[in-house]
Amino acid sequence: LKDYFDKSVFEIEKTSKVPIIGVVNGLAWTAVGGDVLKIESIRIKGKGTMQLTGSLGDVMKESARIAMSVVKTLIDTKKLKIDAKNIPLTFKEKEDKLKIDSSEVYKRYDLHIHVPDGATPKDGPSAGIAMVSVISSILSSKKIRSEIAMTGEVSLSGDVLPIGGLREKLIAAHKAGMTKVLIPFKNYERDLEDIPKEVKDSLEIVGVNRVEEVLKEVLV
Q1: What is the CA radius of gyration of the chain?
Q2: Is 55 a catalytic residue?
Q3: What is the pTM of this model?
């Protein structure tokens, strides 16, 4: 394991311990090992569009669109609480003190999601739960725990689906100083025996089946 850690093909940045809105730690597999992907999001007053940047491939873009639909469903079903002060109001709405439905939050903001290191192509579905987390954070103004990383595909119904490259991803989380990692429950059941003991001892590894479990862990 030490030899694996000493191979400095690229540097993995140490994590911050300060919770922040709109930034989440995803985990990726690359040809030279695992990596931590900082996925960022901002919101701008608009009409509900979403822009994706960072050299993302088609599958990763689809994953972001699925995540957006999942978050909309969470808001519509009141599983993700939206404070009314997060919804931009017209002058008339303010003047008349109209009650606005929480779904207006995703209709009145445009989102921009970016994965830094824009020159490096990125693809695959395993950032799904990270996308759900960052979109939920930016629309609800809730902070994300910076010491948590995650990997997992997400279905349109909000299920967390298994992924590949778990060993390399958990080693990357360990090197970055993460304290907790969220992974699909199916991976938790079948793949942990392949993970080096040093990595398992340093991380709290949590298996999740649903996006609601993810948000309960990650949002402050």
Answers
A1: 18
A2: no
A3: 0.91
**What class, spelled out in words, does domain 20-218 have in CATH?**
alpha beta
pLDDT tens by residue, 104-132: 999 999 999 999 987 788 899 999 999 99
- Token pair for residue 149? 């990383």
Active-site annotation holder among 63, 102, 126, 133: 126
Cβ atoms within 10 Å, residue 104: 18
Q: What is each CA distance from 7 to 37, 54, 67, 130, 200, in whole angstroms?
A: 19, 26, 34, 27, 20
CA distance 46 to 94: 18
Phi and psi of 27, rounded to 5°? -120, 135
pLDDT digits (tens, 9 = 90+) for 187-220: 999 999 999 999 999 999 999 999 999 999 999 9
115 SS3 class: coil
- Please report, for residues 47, 121, 178, the alpha-carbon distance to residue 57 in angstroms, rounded to integers and kept in the order given: 25, 7, 27
Q: Is 14 one of the annotated active-site residues of the chain?
A: no
Give the end-to-end CA distance of the chain in Å, rounded to a whole number: 34
Which of 22, 20, 220 lies closest to 109, judged by CA?
22
Considering the candidates 38, 122, 142, 169, report the single residue annotated as catalytic: 169
